[in-house]
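[step 3/7] inverse_fold.run input=structure_tokens len=247
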């Protein structure tokens, strides 16, 4: 049986029997943990090769308990780790073959609840993703991505690929969109982020130009430290302005 990346088994499948389920029954099982999942989403994951439900002679999908568990893993890894579907598929396929694999990371991980980002320096990182992978991970079309690019929310690399953080940005833009916040509304956030980055660059620039190789290497660690502090300060200021406390 597959295990969840967080260590738990697939949610909600224990209550089902060993028989095959219709797509509607699968939807009911998954919605407890994933309230926004839809039949279209399940069909999309099937089209991407994440699951292979059986078909009746009349063409209806029938899902096994293992199919439902695998769906739970896919949705959980998208939600918690922002992984592209190709990376998720390769990871789960390797697990099912019994290969010793570690959970790969793409971009930023979910917050641990203590203000620290979940990360593992020994975990393999997919540092770049292709355009098709980004579209699949965000579940958007070409026109939407082109719009985001026009606002500078996502910027391709010179060779047309994207850095891993683009997956995180895309996922967050999609989530904000569910609340009616459009990409054009996020230009101010983009501008603020660039100003913050400029401030960090000013602080670490002398370290990068230093003759000592160890000092130059220290610039990368200092950049990450300052970036983390900047993110925390921004979150605290937003909470203060709204008068709320985020979980």
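[step 3/7] decode complete -> sequence:
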């Amino acid at each position: 049986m597959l295990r969840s990346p967080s260590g738990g088994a697939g949610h909600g499948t224990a209550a089902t029997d060993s028989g095959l389920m219709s797509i509607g029954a699968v939807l009911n099982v998954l919605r407890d943990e994933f309230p926004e999942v839809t039949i279209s989403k399940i069909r999309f994951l099937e089209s991407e090769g994440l699951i292979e439900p059986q078909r009746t002679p009349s063409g209806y999908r029938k899902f096994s308990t293992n199919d439902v568990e695998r769906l739970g893993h896919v949705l959980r890894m998208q939600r918690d780790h922002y992984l592209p579907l190709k990376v998720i598929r390769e990871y789960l396929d390797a697990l099912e073959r019994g290969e010793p694999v570690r959970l790969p990371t793409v971009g930023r991980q979910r917050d641990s609840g203590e203000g620290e980002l979940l990360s593992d320096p020994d975990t393999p990182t997919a540092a770049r993703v292709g355009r098709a992978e980004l579209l699949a991970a965000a579940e958007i079309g070409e026109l939407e991505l082109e719009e985001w690019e026009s606002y500078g929310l996502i910027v391709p690399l010179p060779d047309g690929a994207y850095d891993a953080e683009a997956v995180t940005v895309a996922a967050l833009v999609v989530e904000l969109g569910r609340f009616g916040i459009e990409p054009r509304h996020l230009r101010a956030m983009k501008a603020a982020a660039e100003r913050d980055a400029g401030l960090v660059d000013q602080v670490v620039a002398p370290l990068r130009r230093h003759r000592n190789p160890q000092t130059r290497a220290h610039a990368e660690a200092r950049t990450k430290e300052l970036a983390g502090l900047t993110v925390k300060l921004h979150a605290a200021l937003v909470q203060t302005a709204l008068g709320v406390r985020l979980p």
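[step 4/7] annotate
The chain has three domains: 13-81, 106-181, 184-247.
DSSP finds nine helices and four strands in the chain.
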